[in-house]
Amino acid sequence: MNPAYPSNPAPPQRPGLKRLARLVWRHRILYLMLLPGLLYFLIFRYWPLWNAQIAFRDFQPTLGVWGSPWVGLQHFLEFFRSYYFGQLLANTLVISLAKIALGIPPAILLAIALHETGRRFLARVVQTVSYLPHFLSWVIVYGILLAMLSPSEGLVNSGLRALGLEPVPFLTSTATFQPVVVLSEVWKETGWSAILFLAALLSINPALYEAAAIDGASRWQQVRHISLPGMMDVLVLVVLLKIGSILDAGFQQIFVLYSLPVYSVGDIIDTWVYRQGIQNFQFSLATAVGLFKGVIGLVLIVVANRLARRFVGSGLY
Amino acid sequence: MKRAISRSDRLFEWGIDAFLIGVLAVTLIPMWYVAMVSLLPFGKSPSLFLPPWEWSFAAYAQLIFQPTIWRAALNSILLTFGGVAISLTLTVMAAYPLSRRDLPGRGFIVGLILFTFLFNAGLIPTFLVVKDLGLLNSYWAVLLNGAVSVYNLLVMKSFFQSLPESLEEAARIDGANDWQILRHVVLPLSRPILLTIGLFYGVANWNNFFEPILFLSDRNLMPLPVVLRDILTGLNVAEYVEGGAAQAAPAEALKMAAVVLITLPMLLVYPWIQRYFTKGVLLGSVKE
Fold first, then answer.
1. Reported pTM
2. What pLDDT, in 10s, does the model give residues B217-231?
3. Element (H, E) at A109
4. CB-based contact B146:B214 (threshold 8 Å)
5. Contact B125 A52 (CB under 8 A)
């Protein structure tokens, strides 16, 4: 090994600025390489963190972040006391939880079916097709939803009419908006989330299945006693991580899908922050709400990750 | 290996295959129906199976003769390729040093980056940064704000770490510096991950519609997804149906034709890129 480039930092027997400086100088090219990326994070991720202090100030654009007067927790209290607080939190949690509860079983089912089918061609086609929606933007999915659900021309509503039923304005009715949000997410992401479960299945030792078959286990029994337990770790991991980001109910999706009539059931923390901040210029209030969400989110994700590491042995980071 | 198939196992297999075909149908029927509506002639009502002699390409004709669409397409292409170039360069240049275990301060810097993944200041403080930088209404805002994805950076870093160290050491003994090692040793070995991450960035940029809405106000700068959204919400359908109403396409056909036109480039490259995506998600899914 070239002594000029130890693969580990030299043993700390001779700590000192001089030694550190030499070590840094030796890696100057690497630091130079890192510089643009680091600048990116400092400017676009850490500078906003600095700006977030306007949550505690009464931000006025003419005075700037630094010159606006401090108001303490006023914006937070205003939000907690407002009528929106409960509604936003409820919508966010309901939509998020429904996405977890209704999203994971189809993904598991799909992974099992892909793993169990004897028709390789069918499996390949289904896999390719089921990933596809993941790569469509929510704007495109909105177009597809209009084709399916619009009251005048939508496929579902023409079906309802054929059965002699009244057409339903799915996207603009408070009764159907949340189900549309959840089911469209399931439609879009099931194939993609099945990948992880499929990977878990593929890592199960095939000898287990052979032994079970010889002992007379039916295919269904093999799924129940080998495949499902084999996916438990991944399942726990997926659920924990989703709970860690439970306050992200899908900003882009709802931003595209919602409209005035369904604000009461569709508005989530992120969409409200956008409207209050960017559209109504309530910068400080919107920042306070965003910060509230960020802090809760941080705690949740750290806890979820710790739990994942404890129970599964691996986590997100 | 042949075994006797019991009746319950046969039922199981039928169930499995029926489920898979069901998944196929549920995924494809909506897309098929969109294509059918886009071909709808004036005065007809949409159906799942439109006979080919009734197909009308009027909606497509109306769209592709619109300068708005062309400008938006050019904007989208610019943002997609520009975005991939910037993002990939920044990601590689940050991931390589961080993959080197002997870099002093590496843990601290990784921590700094990871923190931004776990906690972000939110929409408004970020908007203010872009505003203070004077980037509002400029593509730099869209290109730079989301330039590096922490997730992609970490995937790239762990790929670099998995390369055999002996190769780099050999190059070093031959007198190569870190730039040369990255360019001539590491990058040629990293083609699969570069492609995967590049494609992730490409799709994200092609689909990006929120940041343009947030940061751009000039309608001439808007990329395809924003124009599509406006068409779908009926904001500017009138703009596309000027001219004779008789041979014009119905508004529904126009909307769905716009959906098809914007999805088409993705659909064309998708069969080739699909397998790379899968590798990417598996590589980056779980960190030990």
1. 0.90
2. 999 999 999 999 999
3. helix A83-116
4. no
5. yes
